Amino acid sequence: MATNQNKTIPTDQNVKQFIDSVDNEVKRNDSIALLNMMTEITDRPPVMWGSSLIGFGTYHYKYASGREGDFFLTGFSPRKQALTIYIMPGFSEYDEILGKLGKYKTGKSCLYVKKLDDVDHELLKELISKSVTYMRDNYETK
Q1: What is the Cα–Cα distance from 124 to 142, expressed in whole angstroms?
Q2: Which of 47, 61, 75, 91 counts the most CB atoms within 10 A of its CB?
């Protein structure tokens, strides 16, 4: 079965220039902190995916439908409403961390944080680390 091309793919866009272009100073500084945290956790360089996502490492997925592709292990985007932090396996296994994390909202695989000062940085680091470990244990990764 033919695979469909993902709309969000790695680009050659410069990550530092993208972060420097973030208007909100708090979001810009939080983006630098997340960049450093995720680089340390994944031991992978940051790469722009599409025009506004910063991803670290990759994993290969294949759905029962036959659709397959590659996406980042973890990443983030400094969106206007909130920092969007991608926890790819979702949140079902992380209730204990989430209960102590601080002020946030979640989507399927997205953790929405207004500013990093709203959450416990060590718990956020633990959440991202456990997420990356899960992905590496369950998917083909780079």
Answers
A1: 22
A2: 75
